[in-house]
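dumping these here so i dont lose them again. two proteins, back to back, each one seq then structure tokens. dont judge the mess
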Amino acid sequence: MAPIKALIFDVDGTLAETEEVHRLAFNRAFAEAGLPWVWEPDLYGELLAVHGGRARLAHFIEHHAPPMAAEGRRRFDELHAAKTRLFAKLVDRRLARPRPGIERLIDDARSQGLAVVLATTSSIENAEALILANFGLDGLEKITAIVGGAGVVRPKPAPDVYELALARLGLTPRAALVFEDNGPGLAAATAAGIRAIVTPSRYAGGDDFSTAFAVLSHLGDTFEPYQHIAGVGDEGGTDMVTVAALQRWVADDDDMLGLLTIGGKPVY
């Protein structure tokens, strides 16, 4: 059995409930540009099926704004740059707070020598802004790598971003755990062969989590225990997710699966 050597975190919805901040930033960018577009929560929930801010904006222009699609295409880069700038400002005002247990688990992982990677189909600048605003420069230095952004050709649910993370780390899928918040992200991790723990975010309530290694309300923190929903985990809602617990869950899972061996060596 190989112990877990890396924790790979999705960003939006997993590190923090950022989607409302993204929605607000898009709406402010549209207003600044003098465009009459407003993304209401219901519409934004539909648009989240398209992963990545640039792809989401392009989809909206083509499918929801036909009367002004030509202008939207012409001003596309301007709009997305304005949205990125406004998102950073809103995050800097700490409108997107980390979800319970995130900072604690990252500290735990780093203290035990595990790599901590952020994998996102949003921009890397957005991920850096979120970490800097909430954890400061010290927090950013705890992150081993941030992968994704423009470097990913196919967004989630394709496995590209997680395969890129594994390649950057030089690890097999069984040596990492992914933390996700929604169905497409889980599908991406599953396609990459990595076990995933899902902590559902606001817009992901109806998603399919049947392939998750575990589904928990969040990662748990002092005086804020997580609630076990499905899969592995310590039922009863009294624990925080720790590296020791993760290693134990993975070891139990490997024992249950009865890993194949070739020449007496496990195949992961």
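---- next one ----
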Amino acid sequence: MIKKRALIVDDEPDIRELLSMTLEQMGLEAITAAKLSKAKKLLETEHFDLCLTDMNMPDGNGLELVDYVQSALPHLPIAMITAYGNMDIAVEALKKGAFDFVSKPLELMRLRSMIESALKLEPPVEHQPPSTSSASTELIGQSPAMDGLKQQIRKVARSQAPIFISGESGSGKELVARAIHQLGPRANGPFVPVNCGAIPAELMESEFFGHKKGSFTGAHQDKQGLFLAANGGTLLLDEVADLPLAMQVKLLRVIQEKSVRAVGSEEEISVDVRILSATHKNLAIEVKNNQFRQDLFYRINVIELQVPSLRERIEDIPLLASKFLNQFAEEANIPPLQLSKQALESLKNHHFPGNIRELENTLERAFTLCQGTTIDPEDLQLPTSTQQPMEIGLNADTTENMQGSIDDHLASIEKEILINALEKNRWNKTAAAKTLGISFRQMRYKLQKFGLD
């Protein structure tokens, strides 16, 4: 079996020897260079599967080598060795395209983990059609905006750099994060999404870092925490802008030190987690308004991906609509419904401030209300410029006590109405459907939707 080869570029003999021994113990062939010029000659004439480079060398620096590798050998993963605490250099290397970084003094477990991840990378497939990637099948769309996004995803998936995913609510930011995870070397590891705005501030540290039994009232047993749950994989910080400032400080330290300390513990545990972040808010404005720490912003925003709104990819609406309608039909165990040409045009002409999530909800409502096999414009119930906003009968107390999203709240109201109608008709579905003024098919779909069948 042919050994994989690694190039080590460092002007310190002790570091070169330590790295060579470590790589050879992992079954790799290690070639060393003490100068930038020699490293470039070796890269020009020989094949390597991995490159490790120090920052400072007699005839240049590691960032120059990162630039060279990105232009001449973009398939080659290159990692930067930085001085302890010099995160600015590490971030700059990641921005230039480095796979990852490791700090001195070298932690051998962290080094081995990074090397194993780098060697799992598959060579990029040249001229691959943008929409054929099996790992991003959930990213439906063939518009120029989506093709560009998919190309970006394939590129950043090869790196371990923190990615900031921006975009409007409902545009599919979590799907983008999942595609980055699935296309990268961590695909076999866990993908752990967390909504930062949904965790109470007083429980946030315990949720992220875990806690020891008895560390506070209610801590009846040890808890792992989200970082350890995502160890070896990817952690998505969704709605990261909602993190309290106190938690932002602790998160910054974990990202820099790559270790966590559980609440009530004296011990720090190393973690190997790739951080992806997402929010619909403008983080730059949040920083300007002192709602988000600037240093954390720079750490999580090494590379930014902008997810297009549905308005920027109208061409994808037919594909998305077909996907949702087939999904609803499968859940209800009935043949799929079709959109009329007029209904499709109505969808294309709608503004969709809620993006794909709003499209899905619109089609689900139409699927439920439609009497035939074809959805017409009136089934969509899209607002027009002449329509007044619908008044919802919620008083101040109701909205103040409402938990979760408005979609969850409306669903709970619908479920309650459904149960009342069924109870009044002694759970006779046909009679209950007649009472509610809906078809039996609609009744059957709603029963399945709320788990009442």
